[in-house]
Write a structure and sequence with these properties.
This protein is α/β, with parallel strands linked by helices. The chain has ten helices and 15 strands. A hairpin with an 8-residue loop joins strand 1 and strand 2 (about 20-25).
Length: about 350
């Protein structure tokens, strides 16, 4: 009997956006502890570009050819041995482990332990815009910063996809929220309930907020180590500086904790995010909806932003990351195509 086939995007070698190929591959089957999901939508994250470029292959080795994309929303079509609590036809969302075949396909095998029921109040494909960035915001604020009601938080980079969720979650915690945003995202960030918005394009953030202190500074913007030192100066004694891009100084003094966040899958946290979406407390914003066949173009459109972040990280970290960036700069510095990405992009098979 012939193996069922499907369309997927894969890369057969590490490199720039040009290594992404839309092609026919074998459809997955559910192994023990897995379900097969018919993909309604997936979304692009900068982490997908980092994996494609091979910048972290020493930490996250991939079996090539590899199907990218960590976010998935879809419907269960097959259930593997040992899986309980799920049925064929269930609508689900998940953040996939980075080493398994991803969701840039018509079907994907998903570890059952990664699944959460999909939100009922948004289009299923759009729900793919939630897992990675929503979990990043949640873990930054609550696991690392330990944000509490009544505290003051500065969210630097609030106009980003993670930033939108972070503002909403912080407001929902009854924190006082100061957010940085440019003209393009200012109104959206304000609609999420931020108490104050600082336009970083007019004045540097440390200068605009000089003399003020925050219990938590959450940095979501690509910043240099020197910029992070100035942001740490805004943290109150005993407070927290949390960054998802480049790290803060190891010894900030004044009892300030500095942490760098690397998101991890957590089905219970994802289920809590879904519950907030369905309760009307958390909005999922999608800037663009495209065909999965356009994924290579999406990577190319994100190349300038990704290259900037990668260069800053390599400057701070050195080591394997800096060597790989020097050895194969084309894996990061692709030729930009079309308008740069602005907000979250969802792709459908």
């Amino acid at each position: 009997m012939s193996t069922a086939r499907m369309k997927a995007v894969r890369y057969h070698s590490y490199g720039g956006s040009e290594v992404l190929v839309h092609e026919e591959v074998d459809r997955p089957v559910a192994g023990a502890g897995q379900v097969v999901v018919r993909v309604a939508g997936t979304s692009f994250n900068d982490a997908d570009a980092g994996l494609r470029a091979g910048l972290r292959r020493d930490l996250i080795p991939l079996a090539l050819p590899h199907i990218p994309n960590l976010d998935v929303a879809g419907v269960i079509t097959e259930i593997g041995a040992g899986v309980t609590g799920r049925r064929v036809g269930d609508a689900v969302v998940a953040l996939l482990p980075p080493t398994v075949p991803g969701a840039a396909a018509e079907y994907v095998a998903v570890p059952a332990e990664s699944l959460a029921s999909a939100p009922r109040t948004v289009d299923l494909a759009d729900a793919a815009a939630l897992p990675l960035v929503g979990l990043t915001a949640w873990q930054s604020l609550f696991e690392h910063a330990e944000l509490k009601p009544g505290q003051h938080v500065l969210i630097n980079g609030a106009g980003s996809a993670v930033g939108g969720y972070a503002v909403q979650l912080a407001v929902g915690t009854c924190a006082t929220v100061t957010a940085t945003a440019g003209a393009r995202s200012r109104d959206r960030v304000r609609s999420y309930g931020a108490d104050r918005i600082v336009d970083y394009t007019e004045t540097s953030v440390p200068q605009a907020l000089a003399g003020q202190q925050f219990d938590v500074v959450l940095n979501l913007a690509p910043t240099s180590l020197e910029e992070n030192v100035r942001l740490v100066d805004l943290v109150a004694e005993g407070g927290a500086f949390v960054s998802i891009t480049t790290p803060g100084p190891e010894d900030a003094g004044r009892g300030v904790r500095t942490m760098r966040v690397f998101v991890h899958g957590d089905a219970a946290q994802l289920a809590e995010l879904v519950a907030r979406v369905d309760a009307g407390e958390l909005a999922i914003e999608v800037a663009e909806r495209l065909s999965l066949a356009d994924l290579a173009t999406v990577h190319a459109r994100a190349s300038a932003r990704f290259a900037h972040v990668a260069e800053l990280a390599a400057r701070v970290e050195g080591g394997h990351l800096a060597k790989r960036l020097r050895a194969d700069p084309t894996a990061v510095h692709g030729r930009p195509v079309g308008e740069p990405l602005a907000g979250k992009t969802v792709l459908t098979p």
